[in-house]
Design brief:
Strand content: 25-35%
Number of strands: 11
Number of helices: 6
Oligomer: single chain
Order of helices and strands: EHEEEHEHHEEEHEEEH
Length: 251
């Protein structure tokens, strides 16, 4: 049974709270921060890339070359019809049975625009055709950038647009001189999320700390029903801005 820890993200302290909890494996959805806390396993691990430790593979260099015709444009979080049309095409091809499959234009606008923190919409347009081919909703953190949600033209498979968006966000992080790109969650053994493990410099939040990923199989034990701490201990170990953990370490 799926279970999550969550908290509202609002008020003057929203940015600091998002910065703090993002470092502890939380993710943002509109004005809510959440982290999986299932009773049966602890497989959903927040993932980020250490920009300084990343070196592109030969395949990733090819992806960069294939997308050399794309222009990047970062805008304020404002939804457009062109974005929504691309979003619908993406969902219908990739996630037709997913939880977002029935999202209408108003719900899409809420996903993009309802943000109490610093957020940008990063659009990618093919300069040869003028077509928008990819979009990423991106949060700005004090130690990096967080890819909240991305989508792209599903018919342009040769471009590997999902990989390209991550590669370009690594470049954005370098330009902004911040150390991390937060990717969302990675699950051991998941084919859909396996591509994240192909990025050098990948770290996952497990056991209350960020750990370098050397071999994805090192985290298979997180799938075991006994791998999760009791919910009360998970809550007690959370550190809030300008405070210590609710439960002192070592107890």
């Amino acid at each position: 049974m799926e279970r999550k820890l969550f908290t509202a993200l609002q008020g003057e302290g929203a940015q600091r709270l998002n910065d703090s909890l993002s470092k502890q494996g939380f993710r943002r959805s509109q004005n809510v921060l959440y982290r999986p806390s299932c009773a049966d396993c602890a497989a959903c691990l927040s993932a980020r890339i250490n920009v300084a430790a990343f070196t592109p593979s030969k395949g990733q260099k090819r992806t960069l070359r294939r997308n050399a015709s794309l222009d990047r444009r970062a805008t304020s979080p404002w939804a457009t019809e062109e974005q929504y049309d691309l979003f619908r095409r993406y969902l219908e091809d990739r996630h037709a049975d997913g939880g977002m499959a029935d999202m209408d234009a108003f719900e899409f606008a809420a996903m993009v625009e309802e943000t109490p923190i610093r957020t940008r919409v990063v659009e990618y347009t093919d300069r040869s055709t003028g077509d928008m081919v990819a979009v990423c909703l991106t949060d700005i953190l004090d130690d990096g950038i967080s890819m909240v949600y991305s989508f792209y033209a599903p018919d342009q498979t040769r471009r590997s647009l999902g990989t390209y968006i991550i590669l370009d966000h690594l470049e954005i992080a370098r330009e902004a001189q911040v150390p991390y790109v937060y990717l969302g969650y990675w699950v051991p053994g998941s084919d859909k999320m396996g591509y994240k493990a192909s990025f050098t410099g990948l770290e996952v939040y497990a056991g209350g700390k960020w750990q370098k990923m050397h071999d994805p199989s090192d985290f298979d034990a997180r799938l075991h029903p006994l791998s999760n701490d009791p919910i009360a201990e998970q809550v007690a170990d959370i550190s809030l801005p300008d405070s210590q953990a609710l439960r002192p370490k070592g107890r």
